[in-house]
Amino acid sequence: MELEAESIYSHQQEGEVLVLGIDRRYESYDTAAEEGVTTGMVVRYAREWDGYGAMPSAATVAPLDEFVAATGEKLREFDQMTMTDD
Questions:
Q1: What are the CA-CA distances from residue 54 to residues 10, 21, 74, 79 (Å)?
Q2: Where are the domains of the chain?
Q3: What is the SS3 string spanning the chain?
Q4: How far apart are CA 11 and CA 72, in angstroms?
Q5: I need a surface site. Which of 6, 14, 25, 73 has the fewest CB within 10 A?
Q6: pTM (2 decimals)?
């Protein structure tokens, strides 16, 4: 399964979740050499959100493999609201 950021998925334990991104986590990273010791891939997701994005207290991370195993189909893309001066 390939996850897409800014999309809403069904999740076995969490219900509907908004995937915010997929990141590589590092135990250490040498910026001069641009290399590091990775601890694996994680998914940033939110259990609660509004039209502007994730609610700060609802965002969390999970190991990518575990998250994918518990994730069902993509339900829809997240349609973010935009602010205007009008």
A1: 16, 12, 17, 12
A2: 7-76
A3: CCCCCCEEEEECCCEEEEEEEEEEEEEEEECCCCEEEEEEEEEEEECCEECCEECHHHEEEEEHHHHHHCEEEEEEECCCCCCCCC
A4: 6
A5: 73
A6: 0.82
